[in-house]
Specification:
Elements (H helix, E strand, L loop, with lengths): L8 H6 L11 H12 L8 E6 L3 E7 L2 E3 L29 H5 L1 H12 L5 H9 L3 H25 L3 E5 L7 H14 L3 H4 L3 E3 L6 H11 L4
Parallel strand pairs: 1-4, 4-5
Antiparallel strand pairs: 1-2, 2-3
Length: about 220
């Protein structure tokens, strides 16, 4: 949103409050929540991945959040996964969130079925044996595996935590991703990286917002 570029939002809001204020990407905040109270309490090097309307990540390593030079680290949804898949809103071809997010699942299924469907409906149809939808879901799960391998090869985490609406499909997703990672992660240790569901579900971002104030993370 160009109208907000370079606007000092924290400083502007801080004028009206006497309390400490922090500003953070939602996926990064959710990663801190999972470290504080969730599935990554035992990890010092992990990536939290949210797969919902888009795909994003929070990176925690060496005991702190990795936020990058300008706070924008974790835009993993724009890894290019399949250049043949079409043009993402960012202008690149075949970004991860363009092929594997909840929005992507609904878009691809709607094109195949020639009617509007939600990602939830797609998973239900696949579970009921609809062959086109099952093939689509299997492809999406592999795409998620590809992105996870990329993260493992790049960051060498001790754990991946996956949250967001798409993760609620549960073990069919996690089993496929673990199998893919076990075959294609570069290092032997990476092939056995634990890949687990987020513990805090849809509350992770809210809890993460509280954690930004209460937890020393930088």
């Amino acid at each position: 949103m160009k109208g907000w570029w370079n606007f000092p939002i924290v400083e502007s809001l801080q004028r009206h409050f006497d309390y400490k204020m922090a500003f953070e990407n939602d996926a990064t905040a959710a990663a801190l929540a999972e470290k504080w109270l969730g599935a990554a309490k035992d990890a010092e090097h992990f990536v939290f991945i949210t797969i919902s309307t888009g795909i994003g990540a929070g990176i925690f390593s060496h005991g702190k959040l990795i936020t990058g030079a300008t706070g924008n680290a974790g835009d993993v949804g724009h890894f290019v996964i399949d250049p043949s898949a079409g043009t993402c809103v960012c202008g690149q071809q075949g970004c991860w969130e363009y092929v594997a997010s909840g929005t992507a699942i609904a878009r691809q299924a709607s094109e195949l079925l020639e009617r509007e469907v939600t990602s939830k409906e797609v998973f239900a149809l696949a579970a009921d044996g609809h062959q086109e939808m099952k093939a689509l879901v299997d492809k999406v799960f592999r795409y998620i595996g590809v992105g996870c391998v990329t993260l493992i090869n790049t960051l060498d985490p001790e754990k991946l935590v996956i949250g967001g609406g798409v993760s609620q499909i549960g073990e069919p997703l996690f089993e496929t991703v673990r199998e893919y990672v076990s075959k294609y992660a570069l290092n032997p240790s990476g092939r056995s990286t634990p890949i687990v569901p987020a513990a805090l579900l849809q509350d992770a971002g809210l809890i993460g917002a509280a954690a930004l104030i209460h937890v020393d993370y930088k």
